[in-house]
Amino acid sequence: MSIDVTKINDQPVLLVRPGPNDANARGDIFGGWLMSQIDIAASITACKIAKGMTVTVAVKELKFIKSIFTYDRVSFFTEVLAVGTTSVTIKVEAFSQSPLSEEWVKVSEAILVFVAVNKPGEKRVIEK
After folding, report:
1. CATH says 2-123 is which class?
2. pLDDT tens string 39-64
3. Rounded distance between C-alpha atoms, residue 17 and residue 31, angstroms
4. What stretches of 1-128 adopt beta strand conformation (E)?
């Protein structure tokens, strides 16, 4: 599945390039690395919406669609799906681009839930 990123209106929340330490012996990037980048991208958006600190409370969905390789550029786009009294639900889509190609390919998508907190263990209301 190939995506034309020029058709995406939003700017990426996060743009990273994995290195050799993020890969297995074949050069594929570990799923755990991608999961952590998805969480970081989603948390950036969740903190903006909540106007303060948030914590991840659930990964409702996570799909690995295509492999990512060492030195690919990986862009993460977020979308707010819901804002509750104390929680924010964020969708993340990840796209990669090989250093040898102009094509961007969708590699993952996920839905995460965050809760706004004052300090660890203390929820707070999100001002709307």
Report:
1. alpha beta
2. 999 999 999 999 999 999 999 999 99
3. 14
4. 2-3, 14-16, 54-64, 73-83, 87-97, 104-119, 122-123
